[in-house]
Amino acid sequence: MEKEIITKQTEPYLKIIPLGGLGEVGRNMMLLEYKDSILVIDMGFRMPEDGMPGIDYIIPNIAYLTKNKKYKNIVGVLFTHGHYDHIGAVPYAMARLGNPPMYASPLTKGIILKRQEEVPMQPKLKIIEVKDGSKIELGPFKVEFFRQTHTIPDNLGMFIETPVGNIVHTSDFKFDKHPVNEKPTDFNKLNEIGKRGITLLMSDSTGAEQEGHSLSERDINKNLEEIFKKTKGRLIVATFSSLINRLQQIITLSEKYGRKVAVVGHSMKTNTWLTKELGLLKVKKGTILKKVSDVNNYKDEEVTIMCTGAQGEESAGLMKIVLKEHPSVSIKPGDTMIFSSSVIPGNERAVQYLKDDLLRQKAIIYHYGMMDIHAGGHAKQEELLEMMHIMKPEFFMPVHGQYSMLVANARLAEEEANIPKENIIIMDNGNILNLQKHKAYIDKKEVPANYVMVDGLGIGDVGEVVLRDRQALAEDGIFVIIAIVNRKTGKVQTSPDIISRGFVYLKESQELLSETRRIVVGSIEEATGSGKIVNWTYMKDKVRDDIGEFLFRKTERRPMVLPVIIEV
Ligand SMILES: [Zn+2]
């Protein structure tokens, strides 16, 4: 009897540790750790926020795995699908994790390999292909993959058998009975999995704040076709290059209405080529033009231009076309422009300017606000609830999304699916969930999960300090003072030089400058004239403080002040 209690107490927990993707959109990475085996799900990045000048991406912090070479315990890295918020960190993390075996569907594998090429000096990855129905055993974990509809083909949810119970990870998903370019949601399979008894459901929360059911791609297609039918001139369609199924719709409709397709934008070209190679994009021979300039060999009504840049991104294909910077295409009156993607919060202004520019150049615009020509790829409340009803989990954990989205998904679970409140787990990145049979709690301990910033090819070398400097430079500019001091006399020779960028226009601020020079000379000579040994570091700090305070008083700005003192 006593012995049994002891074994119960020491029965190990399954630790579930999100390193990213919770309380944010992007940077998805999740660990499942049981004794000395670790399973990793996804390895994504996210785009920097406003106020992070020069930062390219933010990736998950993998310190928990690199410390004490814990990564040696990784039994496999599983990937749900090929979107960058799920695979984008691979080139920055995989080598540091000892290049463990990866499991991905053919398209996801193709995208990972393409992405890997963009970052030099990377090891050759070991990627094992899996597909709908594949079963693998990795240490104490038995994984079965099942297909899920989203905006990209080859998206896989996961059923994971662990020593403490069965886990379902939904991946990003929506339920679509009439998708384009992929099979409809496999409800039979989902129901069958639900019957196995699910201890924990980890479910996509990105669409949890939206009521109702996501639109089917079939309805989108109908609306797009209406535009194709009535358009006489050229059609320019801007969307995300990652919405592979949307690209398929555009290509198929173009073929139906006798249009050739020009592909503009690097990622759009890459994804079109890759999915075509894998047979996941059905394109008739000759539909896609070899060169964008070939559009000029066809009549306007025979041309579709498919491009990136629907978010108003500065470097994207559409922006180049609109600004007349593209070598072979510019807007002409009568062009019809379709924005087939929603506007990501933060990009509204850029998109607004883009639309205005297009209208000035006499283009006709359709965007998703006017009709349903875009469907998001994420389940809305009805679908999320249906997933809960199918899986009937003992515990529920919302994943993928801002905190408000996680909370919305949790509320659905509690209020609509009747999952007891204490069995609903809202986690933060870096939290550790200890899961045992019929028992789950969040550990007091945490693992590091703060942002790791990628700047060019540097990973994590831009820390908080560098970022703060960049913010200061971006907001208030820089103010450099160069003073030459005669060591013997302690006098400042000639008037100090001042260089400033992004602060005030120097020519118009002569008065401010001469006063600044006077203060600099005063501060320096006060220190050197005392007869004591001069502490130059102290003096530089004093000049910086005096000038900083003076400039703030005069301008209410705080430029970065850099005193350079040269002794002669
Ligand atoms: Zn996705």
Give the assembly state of these chains: single chain
Structural class: alpha/beta
Low-pLDDT sequence parts: 1-7
| Strand order in space, largest sheet | 7-6-5-3-2-1-19-20
Protein architecture, described:
The chain has 568 residues and is α/β, with parallel strands linked by helices. Helix content is 31%, strand content 23%. The strands form five sheets. An eight-stranded mixed β-sheet has the order 7-6-5-3-2-1-19-20. Strands 8-9-10-11-12-18 form a six-stranded mixed β-sheet. Strands 14-15-13-16-17 form a five-stranded parallel β-sheet, sandwiched between helices. A hairpin with a 6-residue loop joins strand 23 and strand 24. The protein is globular, with a radius of gyration of 29 Å. The N terminus is likely disordered. The site of zinc ion has 5 residues, from loops.
Summary of the model, kept short:
By secondary structure, the protein is an alpha/beta fold.
Structural features:
568 residues, alpha/beta, six-stranded mixed β-sheet, 25 strands, globular, binds zinc ion
Secondary-structure map with pairings?
Layout: H1 2-10, E1 14-20, E2 29-34, E3 37-41, E4 57-59, H2 63-66, E5 74-78, H3 84-87, H4 90-93, E6 102-104, H5 106-117, E7 127-129, E8 135-138, E9 141-147, E10 156-162, E11 165-169, H6 187-194, E12 200-204, H7 217-230, E13 235-238, H8 244-256, E14 260-264, H9 266-277, E15 303-307, H10 317-322, E16 336-339, H11 348-360, E17 364-367, H12 381-391, E18 395-399, H13 403-416, E19 431-436, E20 439-446, E21 452-455, E22 458-459, H14 464-476, E23 478-485, E24 492-501, H15 510-528, H16 536-555, E25 560-567
Helix pairs in contact: 5-9, 7-8, 12-13, 15-16
Bound molecules: zinc ion.
Zinc ion binds at residues 81, 83, 150, 172, 377.
